[in-house]
Specification:
homodimer, about 425 residues, alpha+beta, Aminopeptidase, Alpha-Beta Plaits, nine-stranded mixed β-sheet, five-stranded antiparallel β-sheet, 13 helices, 18 strands, hydrolase activity (chains A, B), Zn-dependent hydrolase (chains A, B), Peptidase_M20_dimer (chains A, B), Bact_exopeptidase_dim_dom (chains A, B)
Chain lengths: ~425, ~425
């Protein structure tokens, strides 16, 4: 057989199933869909996914944290050390239809291509939907893949209390997805995650595919500045201890640091509150958050150190007390070079425009990279918008991405015609 | 008679009445007192004040906006063109006992000194308590003196709607202070306002008296910055339209402008809110207030122009829309030179340490300066704190200030013993 011409993508299968899954948890009042982890809507999405896996004749495994894995065995019946594709199907509130779901459904579409061609791979293929990637109801996010990769024990994960007071393990049992398989027991030979970019770069540069070679490290801090409230009209500038001005100075400092980093460091102050927040009172307190990201750990540390030094200096200058609290810290992840190179070569062979790039957001692939060689493929997001009903990727872009995935898979695990009985 | 030795301050009268008035509207739950304009507590304060005026044998006049004026006639019975002293007795929420009340009660103490000495001035003396100086419930603030000076019509003032939906005129009638006298009908020959500094300068410089020669102009603006919300992890710095960063840049710009002005311009950003105010989302909107003050009108205008130019420039740089709204604009007020000089000479003659200074806050004197030569006398505020239960001035400082006022008054209007019947 000729893999390239015989094992082909069923684009309708991909698009129709994305649309169908997108209707589960449909949010009639505010638009989009809300399918938060381990709710009834999540159960409905999982049920649909399992039904599709069974229709493709896959071996379905549910592990103890609720990760759903569909496996296409090889001719011998082995499911060991599969090539694994996947992502997640839980969502944020009022989400788009593509975040996570695209990678899972495209994985099924790859297997569908094998089924349609009546052939089997020479190594098993798996499709996984990880539990609770979004972390809306239960912290931390990317939990299913974190447990899968051994970064969090099953017991601790199941004991997690939700924002609604519920215990994760109870909710998992309630929806019937408390499986028996030990997470990580199915050891992937490699992991591929196809995903929408959730950022504006591919669209802005009018490119079709992103070859994701790494994923930024993330450092989140909360900074509390305690100054002194005083009358705006009677307090000379030199006698002020203005917590708001210190916050503004931090903002300007970090923005300059990031802007001068040749685009590699990102710095965001997304949240800031002043007290008492009155027009004619110098703020006594400012609470802000800092989001620092860099694909290079040493550079991320350098940014953290530069911030720390700046805080010490400005606290002294302004006569304020500055306290910091680390909220989140993820090291950068470098994806597998040979996988990324193969994605790049395949993209080029298929005639798509592309660039190598860094993932700005967190993904399950960053956890799976601890277990196996991993990489990601991005397709453009219109306006860079995600976590929003307006999230959109053109159908042709979705099909292109799935074709890159299919081609990489067939190159890696081959295909041979089934012996007709 | 010898004015200096015969017409002397009764310090207990001053301090006891300040304490007694301070208990009206006592706020048992949160400390301080709350005597907001035209509430029952304000009525109780006014009633007490009128009672004290009557006990001193003053002619009491209530005008159409509720200003309370007590007049000490001269021997002929005339009350025309008095030397007027005063301030206000309404308060903010959880106020100190001194703001406003000090100037009114000290005025009564000056008259008490004449009564105790059994003498009369050669020109009439008046003490006034202006309605609604604080502007908590009804805008604008300094309303009673504004109407008195002809800056706002009685009709418009009475029609003012309060934050609680009430009409000022109705509330004034309800508490029985809708007088018949036309505001401004009693034309003062000069106006003197003794007040706590409400700022930290006298305390910091360890001075006893502030000779207030002018009052800053005030420019309040609301600035709304509309940028674009985006993912903090996936949006390169050069593609951002970060409303929060623009707000921070304005803050840093204005602070530098003020700091480099040799202490004459003050700039404060007291209030700032971001939307959506999430750690990993670039703010789409920032709303902030700017409080600019300068004792010189041309310099204040220069600061406003510099801000405007900066906003135009940064809006272009950041790709955001910046809208401004003027909330308040008062021109600076220069007090009467000869009055200020006389206060200074008197302060020196009494052996008090002092400085000439600018009032950072607004006061009724700035309105009265439109009608008659006016000036103010400041005493130290501990920690510069006001509008707060912790507002404090040492008793000796309160007595010193009243003695300066008394001495200036006796020099200007003289005193002659009453002919004993």
């Amino acid at each position: 057989m000729n893999i390239t011409t015989d094992v082909v993508l069923d684009a309708d299968y991909l698009l129709n199933r994305l649309a169908e899954l997108g209707q589960v948890g449909d949010d009639l009042s505010e638009g989009g869909r809300t399918r938060i982890a381990l709710t009834n809507a999540d159960k409905a999405g999982r049920d649909l996914l399992c039904q599709w896996m069974q229709a493709l004749g896959l071996v379905v495994r549910i592990d103890q944290i609720g990760n759903v894995i569909g496996l296409l065995p090889i001719a011998s019946g082995s499911i060991n050390e599969p090539l694994m594709m996947g992502s997640h199907i839980d969502t944020v509130r009022h989400a788009g239809a593509l975040d996570g779901c695209y990678g899972v459904v495209a994985g099924l579409a790859v297997i569908k291509a094998y089924r349609d061609a009546g052939c089997l791979p020479e190594r098993p293929i798996a499709v996984v939907a990880f539990t609770n990637e979004e972390g809306v109801r239960y912290q931390p996010d990317m939990m299913g893949s974190l447990v899968y990769a051994g970064g969090l024990s099953v017991e601790d994960a199941l004991a997690t209390k939700g924002t609604d007071g519920s215990r994760l393990g109870d909710e998992l049992a309630r929806i019937g997805y408390d499986g028996a398989v030990k997470p990580g027991q199915i050891q992937p030979a490699e992991y591929l995650e196809l995903h929408i970019e959730q950022g504006p770069i591919l669209e802005a540069e009018q490119l079709q595919i992103g070859v994701v070679e790494n994923l930024q490290g993330i450092s989140w801090q909360k900074i509390t500045i305690s100054g002194q409230a005083n009358h705006a009209g009677t307090t000379p500038m030199y006698m002020r201890h203005d917590a708001g001005w210190v916050a503004a100075s931090i903002h300007v400092f970090l923005n300059r640091l990031a802007t001068e980093s040749d685009g590699r460091t990102l710095a965001t102050i997304g949240s800031l509150t002043l007290e008492p927040n009155l027009i004619n009172v110098i703020p006594r307190k400012a609470i802000l958050t800092v989001d620092l990201r860099d694909p290079d750990e040493l550079r991320l540390q350098a940014a953290e150190h530069a911030l720390k030094a700046f805080l010490q200096e400005i606290a002294q200058t302004a006569g304020v007390v500055v306290e910091t609290e680390q909220l989140v810290r993820f090291n950068p992840v470098k994806f597998d070079d040979s996988l990324a190179n193969q994605i790049e070569a395949t993209t080029e062979a298929l005639g798509f425009t592309y660039r190598r790039m860094t993932s700005g957001a967190g993904h399950d692939a960053q956890m799976m990279a601890r277990l196996a060689p991993s990489a990601m493929i991005f397709v453009p997001s219109k306006g860079g918008v995600s976590h929003n009903p307006r999230e959109h990727t053109d159908a042709q872009d979705l099909i292109n991405g799935a074709n890159v995935l299919l081609s990489v898979v067939t190159q890696r695990v081959g295909a041979h015609a089934l012996i007709q009985p």
